[in-house]
Model the fold of this input.
Amino acid sequence: MAHWIVNILSMLTLISGIALVLTVALFLKENLILKRKINLGVSLRKFFAKKYLYLSFLIALTATLGSLFFSLILKYTPCELCWYQRIFMYPLVLIFIMAIVKNDKRVYRYSLPVAIIGFLIAAFHYYLQLSNTQSFSCNIVGYSASCTETFFLTYGYITIPMMAITAFALIIALSLNYKYNKENVI
Done:
């Protein structure tokens, strides 16, 4: 059962990564190459701007539940950088719940900095895993896993920090999309 959940989370990470790359490519094509907006791009931006709060909440909730699954069910001991990533991901769930309840469309003003800091920590963590350097001490009070430890590697690149990178990147992309397309949201 646990193997299936890891595979599902890895597949979500893969699909999300592909969607992010395609989104950036579409943005670059529209703005830098064609220097005009194409209908598909406008339609997608409007759709994601309208669903911004719900999609961001769903992403933060999935990342939070995934991290709890890894530590509570699979008994993976989080390293210090994993804890820092959690510090920036877990509050996003509550932030987006409150924004949905209050219909606060300006939530990007305070969720975006949180997601960017979390993204940077996750990217640094992933770098440490790739470089397999032992020069970074990663001990918290008591026992902590090494920040370079890879509990699993799916599709040749997906690890727990890559899942966090993808979740933070999606929230950042949705936030920026909303910020720059909010006037088109009805």
About this structure: The mean pLDDT is 84.
